[in-house]
Each structure stands twice: as C-alpha cells, then as structure tokens.
Write a structure and sequence with these properties.
This protein has 18 helices and 18 strands. It is of the alpha/beta class. α8 crosses α11 and α15 packs across α16. The longest helix has about 35 residues.
C-alpha cells in the first residue's frame, strides 16, 4: 500500500473584523480564513457583498465594465425598431449557455418577436473564433435568410478584427462582441460597434467571470434601457445557464459574485419550474438536488459532448426548446450518442492509463490515444486525477498529420497556457497552436513531435511546481472524530458552498475502525465506527488512488476490526423528504 503524508491546511491570518456580521460558527471561520486572502479582501468591498449567502446583485460594479451601458442602449434601440438580430455563439459549454442566455433573454425576458432574431452556433470542426467558414455562414444567412441588422456575439471574437472588416463589407449591420477571453491587441476588434470584455485593459470589472455571465450582464443592461429599471424575477430563467457556465468553464469561486450566481442558479434548477433542468435530471438519473458537482461532471460534459460529436445545433436546440416532449426526445437522442461515446471513452481511458504507467517522466503525464471522438479532455481529467499530475491527452487520428491535445493542470499552481508558451519559446517547431485557460487548455502538435513535447512538458512542469515527491502529500482542513460527524456539521459546511476553483471543498480526516465494506462495481460503501460505538458510513468512488486501494483489493487490505484513516468531503444529501449526511471518501489508508 502506498504511503501518504497528511498535512493540515495552515491558518495564516485572523478572520477580518468586517466578516463578523455573518455570525459564523468556529468551523466556518476556520474554513473561510484558509480560503480568503488580503489581496481579495482589498480588491472587493466585502462590507457590501453578501459573502456566504445567496443574495446576487448583477448591478453591483456593472458600470466598471466598458461599453456595457452603451451596448444595452444600442440593443434596446434595435429591439424598438424591430431590427433583425442574430446571435453568433461559440460551441463549448460556455458558448452554448451564453448563446442560450441571449436567445432566452430576447424570447422570454424582452419578448422580441421570433421573426426578428435568429442564432448561428459555431462548430468545433471549423475552429474557434470567426473562421472563414463561420463568416461564410453568417453572410449566407444575411443574403438568403434575412438581412442582419445586428450581431450579438458571445464567448468568442476578442481577436477577430479582420473577420469583422469582411462582415461589414458584406453589409452586415452592427457588431456587439461579448466575451471573457484574452484580448489580442494585435487584432483588436476596433471595427466592432461595442466590445464588452472584462479582460480589456480599461476594465475594472471582475476578471474571473464566464462568457455566459458577460452575455447575461449585457441583457440586464438592455432590460434597464428598455424599462428604466432592473426586475430580478424576470431574469430567473437565465441564471441556471450562468451557474452551469461558471462551473463548467472553471471560473474562480473565490469571488463572491461567482459563488452567488452558482448558488442562486442551482436553487432555480432545483425548483422544478423550468423544463430543461427537469429533463436533464431525469435522463442523467440525478435523483437528489443538483449540486455544483453535477454541473461540472454531469451536465457540463453532456453539453460539451455535442461539439465533440459535431452536433452543436442539437444541444443548442435542447437548451432553448420550450415544448417538453420535443425537448425530451432531442435530449434522449443526445443521450444515446453519449452512450456510444462512453464506450470509446472507457477504452481510451484504459489505454491512456496503460501508457501512463510506463512513462519515464515523473512529474507529468502525456499520452496519445486513437479515437474518432474528442474524448481527450475527459480522459486528461481522469488520468491526471488518478496520478495527481498535470496531464495532456492527445487524440491520434490516422487521417491527420497532427495530434489534437487537451490538457488539465490538476494542481492549481500550474498554468498550462504559460507552460505551452515556454515550450514554444524553446522550440517553435512543436506546437501548431494552443490556447485556453490556466488549468484547462488545448494544443495541437505535429505527430513526430510527441516525444520531444512530452519531455519539454515535464521540464516546464518541474519549473512551475518543482519535482513531485515520491510520497504523496494530501492537504486536509480539519481532523474530526466519528462522533463529530453530524447532519448539523454537514449543514454548516454547505452554508459556505458552492465549491470549485480557488474555493476548494473542505477535506476532513478521521481515524476509525472498519465495520464492513460493500463493493458495487467501481464504488464501495464503507461502514466505520469508533470504540464507543458511534457509526458513520461513506461512499468511495476510487477516483483518487494515492493509497493504492482499488475495488479489487479493498476487502483483502481492510478487514472488520482493522484501524483505518479516511479523508473525505461532507455535504447534505436530500432525496425527496429525506435529509442526511453525504460523506464522499477521497482516500482510504490503514492506520498503523
């Protein structure tokens, strides 16, 4: 069995006095102190920010986002004049949800006649941004479907100036670009009539918000321009999309505004008022309340599956459909396609793990698998999590001269985009292209460069993280006794949720005695107790193999009466009228 070094998360500073108004428990104070820092506290006014509750105010600091008010006025004028508006959105989960937000805002919130707007969704197969293919599709719509008076663009387009010049030359009307990606100042979209992006140098708005969030704020500004005030209840239908994009696009939850929109969005999803979320819960067999985990690992991947299978239009239809039966039928078609893809994913994952086991690189994992499906992002997450190392998984398509890679940083200290850039600086004959976010970024390389890429990826991983130690280190928040683990405690922890990037879910550690273990395929239920007879049980999915325990060996390594050490997360499990403790075990270790 592998050995693990357990390190308790350090509490470096006292809880600021300004947070005393929240009447926190001792545990909540300890968790907050380790997740907040003075830099964040100074940057945002926590005195007027609802730090841990579900209040969400989209108007707060909105004026710090350049062009937002002007764009709202311009869109409102187009609506009043019954101009024809076309949404042009990107193809990933953030792009799909941002397109859905713009569409549903026009349809359900602003009540624009359906003849006065349309939507064009970009395709993965033709590349990100305003490619020649996308430009041709827009111009064809303009010439053959309806003249375009205004384009509302979402989640892409921050460096596509040449494309906008072509669109203007073709007679397309106003261009309003909403995005959240890096701004390419060498190809700055100066031809666009409005450019709303918090990454602009002159923006003082929150940098870490999703493209869908930017689209949402733009619609809020439009509503205010039309009606003179903001009416929160009118926008409830949009907030679940923003919550989904915030989690799926791995936005930082250290910022209260992101946690607030996720919490409010989840509450709306779980209220069973909107058909989309009811259908997705049913088809994904999610019987309990939806959580941020479900958004990140169930619904988000389902949305992204569509672009990886070249059916972006299908998932967009699902996102905006109003009729329940039509929605259910289309979602069922997608689920059937997902079933085929899952088989390919299982085979690819097995092959990737076999490759990873024999690699000489000690600090990272770079694998290449043959597949007709773009499953490399999911596999990179799975393999990276299994080995606790930054990982890139390439798809090796025999008809292409390139390998298409998807990377996952795994460690929050890693910056994949910088890492790719360092590789490119050392040898500019390896990478054809690359881009994305800090912890999730893709790249394309020449097939004959896989070995040298693997070497350099490991080299620059070491430069960012240092060499990984042979003894795995697991950081936990607090050690608890079995008797400490109560429903009341689980509710305390849930109050400062949701958890995600930069706001990690608390990990607890407990020493106990094995009562019994039940194995169900790739998961196990572990029943534990202490000497006094206090009992607790948890579910182990074997996602983390730090200790080397698997479904095949757990019963031989841990027998009734053995002492064990578990690390785990705690939450509240709600199933209909039953409320209980949800313990998800992270690692299991024998206690000497």
């Amino acid at each position: 069995m592998k050995r693990v070094k357990y390190v308790q998360r350090a509490i470096k500073e006292e809880l600021p006095d300004k947070l005393s108004k929240y009447k926190l428990t001792k545990l909540q104070e300890e968790l907050l102190v380790t997740r907040l820092d003075n830099k964040i506290l100074k940057r945002f006014d926590y005195e007027s920010t609802d730090l841990i509750n579900s209040k969400f105010d989209p108007l707060k600091n909105m004026d710090k986002l350049p062009d937002i008010n002007e764009a709202g006025n311009m869109i409102a004028k187009a609506i009043r004049n019954k101009e024809h508006i076309v949404i042009v959105n990107d193809f990933d989960c953030d792009g799909i949800t941002s397109g859905a937000v713009l569409y549903k805002a026009l349809e359900k919130v602003l009540h624009v006649n359906e003849d006065n707007f349309g939507i064009i969704t970009n395709k993965r197969s033709t590349g990100t941004g305003y490619s020649e293919t996308l430009i041709s599709r827009i111009i064809e719509y303009h010439n053959n479907v309806h003249p375009i008076d205004m384009i509302l663009s979402s989640d892409h387009g921050s460096g596509c100036e040449a494309s906008y010049v072509k669109l203007k030359a073709a007679g397309v009307g106003k261009l309003i670009i909403t995005d959240h990606h890096h701004v390419d100042y060498n190809n700055y979209p100066k031809t666009a009539d409005m450019f709303i992006n918090p990454q602009r140098k002159d923006s003082k708005y929150y940098k870490e918000v999703s493209g869908c969030f930017v689209a949402y704020i733009t619609m809020v500004s439009t509503y205010i321009s039309l009606h003179g005030k903001y009416r929160p209840e009118a926008f409830n239908i949009l907030l679940p999309y923003v919550a989904l994009s915030t989690i799926s696009d791995v936005m930082s939850l250290k910022y209260p505004i992101n946690r607030q929109v996720v919490k409010v969005g989840l509450n709306i999803m779980n209220a069973y008022k909107h058909k989309l979320w009811v259908v997705l819960k049913r088809l994904l067999r999610l019987n309990n309340r939806l959580t941020s985990y479900d958004l990140g690992f169930k619904i988000g991947p389902l949305v992204n599956t569509a672009n990886r299978m070249d059916v972006e239009s299908l998932i967009m239809d699902i996102m905006i459909e109003n009729d329940y039966d039509t929605l259910y039928n289309k979602a069922s078609i997608l689920m059937d396609m997902v079933g085929t893809k899952k088989a390919a994913q299982a085979a690819g994952s097995k092959l990737a793990n076999e490759q990873a086991a024999v690699l000489k690189e000690q600090n990272s994992v770079v694998v290449a698998i043959p597949s007709d499906y773009a499953i490399n992002g999911i596999i990179a997450s799975m393999v990276g999590g299994r080995h606790n190392k930054p990982t890139v998984c390439f798809i090796d398509n025999p008809t292409s001269e390139y390998l298409m890679g998807s990377g996952r940083g795994i460690n929050d200290k890693i910056d994949l985009v910088k890492l790719y850039n360092d590789i490119n600086d050392e040898d500019d004959k390896i990478l054809v292209s690359y881009g994305g976010h800090k912890l999730a970024a893709g790249c394309k390389i020449y097939k004959d460069k896989l070995t040298v890429f693997r070497t350099l990826f490991d080299k620059y991983t070491v430069k960012q993280l240092g060499k990984l130690k042979s003894v795995n280190t697991l950081t936990y928040d607090k050690q608890l006794k079995v008797s400490d683990i109560t429903l009341s405690l689980a509710k305390e922890i849930s109050r400062i949720s949701p958890y995600g990037k930069d706001w990690p879910e608390p990990i607890f550690m407990t020493d106990a005695i094995v009562a019994s273990i039940l194995v169900f395929g790739s998961m196990a239920k572990v029943f534990m107790q202490d000497k006094a007879g206090n009992k607790i049980d948890g579910i182990c999915f074997f996602n983390n193999v730090m200790t080397g325990i698997t479904p095949d060996n757990i019963k031989s390594l841990l027998k009734r009466g053995d002492k064990l050490r578990v690390t785990y997360t705690l939450g509240v499990l709600t199933n209909r009228d039953v409320v209980g403790i949800n313990m998800v075990i992270n690692t299991i270790d024998t206690k000497e």
